[in-house]
Amino acid sequence: MMDLFEKCRKYDRAKQVQAAGVYPYFRAIESTSGSSVVTQGKRRVMIGSNNYLGLTHHPRVQEAAKKAIERFGTGCTGSRFLNGNLVLHEELEARLAKFLGKESCLVYATGFLANQGTLSSLVSRNDVIYSDRENHASIIEGTQVALGDTIKFKHNDMVDLERVLANTRKKYDGAVIIADGVFSMSGDIFDVERAAELAKAYECRLFIDDAHAVGVLGPHGEGTGHHFGIQNDVDVVVGTFSKSFASIGGFVAAKEEVIHYMKHVARPFIFSAAMPPAAVAAVLECLKIVESEPQHLMNLRRNAAKMKTEIEGLGFNTLNSQTPIIPLLIGDDYAAFQFTQKLYENGVFATPVVRPAVPEGCALIRTSYMASHTDEDLDYVLEILDKLGREFGIIGCGSKQSELASLAQQHFGV
Ligand SMILES: Cc1ncc(COP(=O)(O)O)c(C=O)c1O
Fold first, then answer.
1. Surface-to-core class of residue 192, CB atoms within 10 Å of its CB (0-12 exposed, 13-18 middle, 19+ buried)
2. Chosen CATH of 295-412 out of 3.30.1490.100, 3.20.20.140, 3.40.50.300, 3.90.1150.10
3. What is the pLDDT of residues 362-380, one digit of tens each?
4. Mean pLDDT over all residues of the chain?
5. 58-292 belongs to which CATH class?
6. Strands 363-368 and 325-331: what pairing?
7. What is the pLDDT averaged over residues 5-26?
8. Is the pLDDT at 413 greater than 90, yes or no?
9. Model pTM greater than 0.90?
10. Domain residue spans in the chain?
11. What residue owns the CA closest to ligand 1's atom 12?
12. Among 51, 133, 138, 243, which is best to mutate for testing ligand 1, by the most ligand atoms less than 8 A from CB?
């Protein structure tokens, strides 16, 4: 026998990084402005956030949240199923379904729970989930809770997806192909077009987690399906309000019969308290703003395009990102921690991505851009990236750049 806590005593990975003075996690933020934060008394440009449209500080969003608190109080104190269902939740569901072009929608307390609830309620014992290897942790948790089998395919590799479908599909009853629409760390877009063709050919349903795509991709930010113009081929869209929608909460959108079923069966929905009133009201207002103020999406696209061009121009490998998530391929975990620390000391807040979130030796610094960044913010970030990139030998060094290019090719297929 062994003490259950033995593993905790032995766990020293974080402590090693702390001891080296490059620990990048749990930095306490003292205040924020939408494009920058203050930590340890110093302003730092935020390039590690998911606040893509910059709406967390929009006066209308803040006002809507305050009004909801006055009307409904600070919490729902129960599940939507029982005592926590507000008219606000229903208004949001109706509006969001319309925005996404789906029949119906269900709002969860978080996006994490939305993925768990969707997979655990829809995938039964004889069903199968085909899941991209780089899917978000909440999808992975969902596949572990679901009773059916899970078969992984190589990241965004439609040849591999077809291979596993051809080898296994006949063994199961129902099937779903699931992937992030925009991958949260590398910023690449899932090949929804080809996946939709394969879903049809092999009689699978197609689920897309559009956490990083709603508000970002598509003509008005409706997500990945709309980006490709094939929204009707995506059977289920899951998402979150913790990114473009400047709040917290999650959703799933699909046909009415699917949502009705989930509402009465999904345990993460039924047995977890409802999204609080201020959070729902903030999302509702964001949705109205997304529909009426296109300038936020235009600014986001302008800022993302500028940063992609400039960062690649400096010589960084960005894994050919097509979205506001622009990773910088660094390679070694420790170098990524050091680089992030130097960015921080120079007034830029970003986050490293190390194994197991990426393959060994493929550490990244995840940078992401927002509508609310000013040119001054972005130019400052570029100046610091240029300086540090050279200091670390990531740019301005042909052999290192070729080494990173071959890593990108080998592990990310770009
Ligand atoms: C792709 C993806 N799906 C789901 C989630 C979970 O969303 P939430 O923060 O609402 O739990 C996230 C958030 O990090 C995400 O990036």
1. buried
2. 3.90.1150.10
3. 999 999 999 999 999 999 9
4. 96
5. alpha beta
6. antiparallel
7. 96
8. no
9. yes
10. 58-292, 295-412
11. 211
12. 138
